[in-house]
Structure formats: C-alpha cells, structure tokens
Amino acid sequence: MGTTMSDLFDFKSRQRRFAVVGHPVLHSKSPQIHDAFARQCNVSLSYDAIALDPIAFEQGVRNLQAGGVAGINVTLPFKEAAFRLADEVSERAQFANAVNTVSFSDDDHIAGDNTDGIGLVRDLQENLGIACTGARILIIGAGGAARGIVQPLLQSNPDCVVIANRTVSRARELVASMDSPDRVHPCGLDDVNEAFDLVINATAASLSSQVPALSESVFHPGSHAYDLAYADQPTAFMRWALGLGAVRAVDGLGMLVEQAAEAFWIWHGQRPHTAPVISALRSGGC
Question: Rounded CA gap, 103 and 43, in Å?
C-alpha cells in the first residue's frame, strides 16, 4: 500500500523542529550533521540554519520558541547573549559564560548548555587518539572560545595548561575565574618560550589567514596542533605548525561534529556515531 496524503501530514506532525542560529549562519554544516544523525538514529526532525538580527537576538529566539521550535544551536556572535537569555544553565555553560545549545520546554522555560568543550575533548581523545592526561597543553587566546574548552580539558588531567593571550590581563582574568588555578598559568604571547605536547589555537586568526605571534619553540617533534576553526583546506595555523615540526595538525571539524552529537543526545536521548559523519564531511558528502 502506498503512502497517503494523511500519512504525510501525520509524519510532518511528528517531526520536531530544530535550528542553528547565528549571523552569518548559512555556511553552517550543522543542518547536514543533524540530518545525518537523525537518519542514523531513526529520529524524525527538521533542522534549519536561521540568521538572526544581532540587535534583535532575544526577540528572534522568542519567535522561534513561539513558533514551535524545540531547540536551537547557537553560534557566533550569540553564545553570550544566549547565556543571558536562558532561565537555567548547566554547570559547563556557567563556567564558559556562554550557551551553544538551547532547549525549549512547553512552559516557555529556556534551558542552556555548552557542548563545545566536551566536543573538543572527545575529538582529541576518541577520534584522534591524542592523550590529554599528563600532557602539557598551550591554549592560544583567552576569549569565549578558550573559556568554553579549558574546564573540560582540565578534567582530562593534563600536567598543566598555559593560556597565552596578547593582552595578559584577559588570560589572568580567565585563570582567576577557574576552580583549579594552580594547574592553569596565564601569560603573554611573548612569554611563551617552551615546547608543549598539544597547542590549541582558540583565536580567530586563521579566519584571516594569520598565525599567532608566538615563538617557534612551542612545538617539539611529538607535538600536536589543533585549530578550533575548520575549513576545506588546512588553516594558516595548521600549515605553520607543521612547518615548525609538529607531528600532526588538525582543524575543528571533529569538534563541531562531537559538540553536535552532545546536543543531539540532550534533545533526543540518543548518542549517534560520529566517525562516519566526520568522514563524510571530510569527503564533501553527508
């Protein structure tokens, strides 16, 4: 028996609606990722990329909520605004002072979470086989991206974490806000003169094809380099790291997929397999 028009309407009514919001946002791979997860987990959903007006973010979110959207992912430049808008936030969102995953309840309650840091750690340890335990880690940058990843990195028990920033006071402020300041050390970019096992670029330098103004001594032959940005071609930071002897340099595509998987679990209670989705995106599919 074929599918009837009534069946189609019933299917549509069962679909839950989700979206990623940002400005700009049409380049986002999140719709592809969540559609792939939904097929894998046999979940019926629709997921769109929606650009919101930066000066009317709250109203835009309220409109989506009133329109029946069940949850949204939040990307630049709205993560801090989403944190302020949420009625309730998770501990990891509280520390990051930013929200990238929002859940709407039937009583108009807004719950916020931050899945960026756990997405990074899972990509490092489970996908790439890069051990954080006992590692010396350098984070370049002290902005929102760095704040979102530092606590989950600390929970993986590294030997130490150094946060280097052009403006030293911002690095100091970030360290001062942490639960374990004895394992995290702030400094200026010019003060970094030793090698690290893992160097993470949490700045936006790669978006303008620039590299951080760091000493070439940050890499040793076994160092790994990780750029939170992702692109179709190796980023400027990745090329720079490999040129200075890093054993491997990767971008943040795996982190993007892993943080999306965590959001998918929050919304649907199912944890999708990320490896095939990462592979498909790398090959231009999905």
Answer: 17
